[in-house]
Amino acid sequence: VVTVEIMGLRYPIRSTLDPAYVARLANYVDEKMRAAADASPNGDAYRVAVLVALNIADELLRLRETSRARDGELAERAEELEKMLDRVLLA
């Protein structure tokens, strides 16, 4: 069990993940929550949490899309290199 603090509240987190990693995750969420709360001072904690969840989901999906695009580019480049190697070896 790792106890973390987010927005001044302590949460015991039961996880098989490395405690230092769990602390990093909590720190990231805390930073996002504080930034959202500063930007929306009239928002309650629930609304701030939903905004943060949407923001983190956006970051995740953008990273996945970027990763897929890079994977596609790498696959194309590998295919080009394979064709070039075949030409050299068959010459």
Describe the structure.
There is one protein chain. With 91 residues, this protein is mainly alpha-helical. The termini are far apart. The chain is elongated, with a radius of gyration of 22 Å. The chain is built from 2 helices and 2 strands. It has a two-stranded antiparallel sheet with strand order 1-2.
Entry keywords:
11% strand, mainly alpha, single chain, 91 residues, elongated
Structural class: mainly alpha
Taking all residues together, what is the mean pLDDT? 92
Q: How many beta-strand elements? A: 2
Write down the Rg. Answer: 22 Å
Low-confidence parts: none
Let me know the largest β-sheet: 2 strands, antiparallel
The neighbouring-strand order within the major sheet is: 1-2
Instruction: Provide a count of the helices.
Output: 2
What proportion of the residues form beta strands (DSSP E)? 5-15%
Shape verdict: elongated
Termini separation comes to 63 Å
Instruction: State the order of secondary-structure elements, H for helix, E for strand.
Output: EEHH
Helix content: over 70%
Give me a quick take on this structure.
The chain has two helices and two strands; from the N terminus they run E-E-H-H. The protein is mainly α and 91 residues long.
How do the strands and helices of this protein lay out in sequence?
Elements: E1 2-6, E2 9-13, H1 19-39, H2 45-90
Antiparallel strand pairs: 1-2
